């Protein structure tokens, strides 16, 4: 089996799975020398020669040419993890306040505090906690 055929057998399905928004097509035995052609959104295309390279070298070269850098992938993973954490709340998350979570104490801005709770903070005769 030729190295490009091994690359297509082992790595092509993985690349397709990891890039669901990208259309990928295999065209076999069109030319005597194997190549990979990549098309970009701006109309530019890149031709990658795979002659004499094994499947690992092809994969590494393809990753370097059209793939994202490791730092970019790590930054995207961290940003995705921060955004998806359900424990976060605030104006930029799905919950504005912690009181929206079931079982939490309601917001003091929207509910009246019970007299029993208020008397725990201010015992009889005291008007301030500091006194």
UniProtKB/TrEMBL annotation:
Superkingdom assignment: Eukaryota
UniProt xrefs under Pfam families: L51_S25_CI-B8
Please give the GO cellular component terms listed in this UniProt entry: mitochondrion; ribonucleoprotein complex; ribosome
InterPro entries in the record, alphabetically?
A: Ribosomal_mL43/mS25/NADH_DH (IPR007741), Ribosomal_mS25/mL61 (IPR040049), Thioredoxin-like_sf (IPR036249)
Where in or outside the cell? Mitochondrion
Molecular functions per Gene Ontology: structural constituent of ribosome
What does the UniProt keyword field contain? Mitochondrion, Ribonucleoprotein, Ribosomal protein
Return the similarity comment. Answer: Belongs to the mitochondrion-specific ribosomal protein mS25 family.
How is this protein named in the record?
Small ribosomal subunit protein mS25
